[in-house]
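agent> Task received from the user: take the single chain below, predict its 3D structure, and emit structure tokens. No templates, no multimer pairing.
agent> Plan: (1) validate residues, (2) run structure prediction, (3) serialize to tokens, (4) report one or two observations.
agent> Step 1 OK, no nonstandard residues flagged.
tool_call: predict_structure(input=
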Amino acid sequence: MSKNYFPQAIDVLINQCQGVEGSALYAILVEIAKSKPSEVVKAAERVRRLKGILTWENKCRILLASGHKIDAIKECCALTGWGLREAKEAVERL
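)
tool_result: status=success, residues=94
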């Protein structure tokens, strides 16, 4: 007996796609959820796990390792809400 993923897929659409309702992207996601609800649920779980792994520090370390210090500082500002000085100092401590 297969598990019914459709209710979970709808829950993902409601909780993860706020702000895109009525867009073409949302329409595509709804069609995917109808045809492959288990895939929507699995994808949402992978995203949730990645969000836990990719902290601002890890994202900034990745940028720094590839030589993008300014982008790392910008990302730090965006993710933490810190000002430029605080973000720069934090990135330089990594």
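agent> Step 4: summary for the user.
Residues 6-53 form one domain.
agent> Done.
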